[in-house]
Design brief:
Keywords: ATP-binding, Cytoplasm, Ligase, Nucleotide-binding, tRNA processing. The protein is built from 14 helices and 20 strands. It has 442 residues and is of the alpha+beta class. Strand 1, helix 2 and strand 2 form a beta-alpha-beta unit. The two termini are 47 Å apart.
């Protein structure tokens, strides 16, 4: 065995050492050069090393006629190496960017397939990293984008790993030649209307003719920028720690931050902290759309500003920022009858209601605020509900979702608000568990 091959196996195993306790290493196997070499390397390492279970997954996009033969090719390769293969067929949604749509469909399949304790291995290499850097530079990316593809990141309930990012395409070709591997050549890789193909075939040959080390130096720049992004993330965590305070309305179950600590920061640090906080919640806005943050931050005290982003909305209320998404963006239907108040009531698009103590006599009905509601309180008489909500400091966005319990035309209780949520004389209280959104899947 030649020295370059020994080096490649050793480097791969070193890169994967922290992940050898995973339950499964699942290889994203397109059948192309990169994933073919990765699969072959791992299958041969498994003969002499104690590795997690190896499996492969092939995503069939169905975008071209030639692709129909690829699952069969991938199956034959996996059979020869003794690696189980799962073939997943996906529907690529039409859009402005076919590349992006195919990638979204592919990674959707990867997320669904990757379980807790598992890792998905992909074959991107150093040349891909350089292409990513230049591609994002042309799109005006910031430090995060220019840091390129991370070597590892969370994916679904597991992790995605790119163990070949320090390997060149030339090294992969040399390995494939030595072992006489066969792989698929995707015809679309020659189509230069796609931006990455244009960079690969038109731009990089010119760059490397003038600067032979261009790929290596660009990948090194991406590594420097990745380190810089790590420092920015640490700064964001420091700044967010001051803004992550307890609220009287934490029971709403919504991500929120105190505004005042953020306002003390420079504009750049505000954007950095918010970008870090918003990243798991939504696609981050581009530079032109950060004016929405400034409008939200600088609005007058009695305003109810909203910053609309791709996967939800940022609201300002009670000196805090609140993230709303999913069902929180829709008005729940009403009224809702509560035939048996002794059992919990699941509200359409609005969580669950429960009585503690002996519930009031029925029949009861759940409604939501429309304006003009009046509530009769012991020792206080009839009080306007709007004023009562103001006294309680309820965030404006939550007022239309607070369940109101009526008996006929009488407003008996407002869920969760002390003094309004039950009858002390009757010994019953109304509890509301608001809609729980899985914020991490946006």
């Amino acid at each position: 065995m030649s020295q370059p091959t020994i080096d490649l196996s050793t480097r791969l195993l070193r890169n994967l050492t922290p992940w050898r306790t995973a339950t499964t290493w699942r290889i994203a196997f397109s059948g192309g050069l990169d994933s073919t070499v990765l699969l072959h390397l791992l299958a041969h390492l498994a003969k002499t090393q104690s590795l997690p279970m190896l499996t492969a997954i092939h995503v069939h996009h169905g975008l071209q006629f030639a692709a129909d033969a690829w699952p069969e090719h991938c199956q034959s390769v996996c059979d020869a190496l003794g690696v189980p293969l799962e073939v997943v067929r996906v529907q690529v949604e039409p859009g402005a960017s076919l590349e992006r749509a195919a990638r979204d469909a592919r990674y959707g399949a990867f997320i669904a397939a990757t379980h807790a304790g598992e890792v998905l291995l992909t074959g991107q290499h150093r040349d891909d990293q350089a292409e990513t850097l230049l591609f994002r530079l042309m799109r005006g990316a910031g430090v995060r984008g220019l840091s390129g593809m991370p070597s590892e990141r969370p994916l679904g309930r597991g992790h995605l790993l790119r163990p070949l990012l320090d390997v060149t395409r030339a090294e992969l070709e040399a390995y494939a030649t030595e072992y006489q591997l066969s792989w698929i050549e995707d015809p679309s890789n020659q189509d230069r209307q796609f931006s990455r193909n244009y960079l690969r075939h038109q731009v990089f040959p010119v760059l490397t003719a003038r600067w032979p080390q261009a790929v290596a130096t660009m990948a090194r720049s991406a590594a420097h920028l990745s380190e810089a992004q790590g420092l920015l993330d640490e700064l964001a965590q420091i700044d967010l720690a001051h803004a992550t305070t307890v609220s009287d309305f934490d029971w709403l179950g919504l991500p929120s931050l105190e505004l005042a600590p953020l306002e003390k920061l420079s504009d750049a640090r505000q954007r950095n902290a918010l970008s870090h906080w918003l990243k798991p919640l939504t696609t981050l806005p581009d530079s032109d759309h950060w004016s929405g943050w400034e409008n939200l931050r600088d609005a007058t005290g009695d305003a109810r500003p909203v910053w609309r982003l791709a996967a939800g909305e940022l609201h300002r209320a009670g000196g805090r920022l609140w993230w709303l998404s999913g069902g929180w963006l829709h008005t729940p239907p009403s009224p809702v009858s509560w035939a048996d108040p002794s059992v919990s009531l699941a509200l359409p698009d609005n969580g669950v209601l429960t009585f503690t103590g002996q519930p009031p006599d029925g029949p009861l009905q759940i409604r939501y605020r429309e304006g003009g509601e009046v509530m009769n309180l012991p020792d206080r008489g009839h009080r306007d509900l709007k004023r009562l909500l103001n006294e309680s400091g309820v965030p404006g966005f939550a007022r239309g979702r607070l369940p109101l319990v009526y008996r006929g035309q009488q407003l008996l209780a407002v869920a969760n608000l002390q003094g309004l949520n039950g009858g002390e004389q009757g010994g019953w209280y109304l509890h509301w568990q608001p809609l729980i959104e899985d914020q991490g899947l946006s």
